[in-house]
Design brief:
With 217 residues, the chain is of the alpha/beta class. The chain has helices at residues 11-21, 36-46, 63-73, 88-96, 109-120, 128-143, 156-166, 171-178, 182-196, 201-210; strands at residues 2-7, 27-33, 50-54, 78-83, 101-104, 125-126. It is elongated, with a radius of gyration of 18 Å. 32% of the residues are buried. Residues 3-120 form the Response regulatory domain. Keywords: DNA-binding, Phosphoprotein, Transcription, Transcription regulation.
Length: 217
């Protein structure tokens, strides 16, 4: 069962989403919120698998800011941006904020269901034209001689965990320093290793040294 939290400032949209999703055997809507801060509080209380996050919410914290903060606090929760904005700037900002997917509100219901099921199992989801635009942007960057540094894809929290782990701190010690749970540290560390393509702690230390994250007296 995929547990869903809906965060949208329009009550009618939330009701429509709940009606659609609650009718599916493998999906359960566990809660709703009308703005970003409330969404974060509800996510921490309800522990959903997927948060459906509206992009533009005029009152309280907006969707992008909330998504980034939510991923810092709960990295194992998938955030799926649901928006009316078919815009490259919003798309790239959503990805940078840590969103696992980006779906237009105008998309067919089946596309939304596919996106939810995809991000719930750890995959990413972008609507087809967005994928094409991302690929085009990547090709253009390569033509300009630019190279993507995977280190830049890490969140600030992931960089902190990387640095402390490379310095030899145990998960419990890292959790105490950053005031987060040991489970969250483990999730961040796993994400870091996967993103950087690292397998062992010596590889992690070597990477941290290369990036200047370690200092020796």
């Amino acid at each position: 069962m995929i547990k869903i939290l809906i965060v949208d400032d329009h009550a009618m949209v939330r009701s429509g989403m709940r009606l659609l999703l609650d009718g599916k055997a493998d999906i359960e809507v566990v809660g709703e919120a009308s703005e970003g801060d409330e969404g974060i509080r509800e996510a921490e209380a309800l522990r959903p698998d997927v948060v459906l996050m509206d992009l533009s919410m005029p009152h309280g914290k907006d969707g992008l800011t909330a998504a980034a903060e939510l991923k810092e606090r709960m990295p194992d929760v998938a955030v799926l941006i649901l928006t009316m904005h078919d815009d490259d700037e919003y798309l790239f900002r959503a990805i940078h904020a840590g969103a696992a997917g980006y779906v237009l509100k105008s998309a067919p219901h089946e596309e939304l269901l596919t996106a939810i099921r995809s991000v719930a199992k750890g995959d990413a989801y972008l609507y087809p034209t967005a994928t094409k635009r991302l690929m085009h942007e990547y090709v253009e960057r390569m033509k300009r001689g630019e190279s993507a540094d995977v280190f830049d894809t890490l969140s600030e929290r992931e960089k902190e965990v990387l640095t402390l782990a490379a310095q030899g701190y145990a998960n419990k010690e890292i959790a105490e320093q950053l005031t987060i749970s040991v489970k969250t540290v483990e999730t961040h560390k796993s994400n870091v290793m996967e993103k950087l393509g690292l397998k062992t702690r010596p590889e992690l230390i070597k990477f941290a040294m290369k990036k200047g994250l370690l200092r020796f007296d």
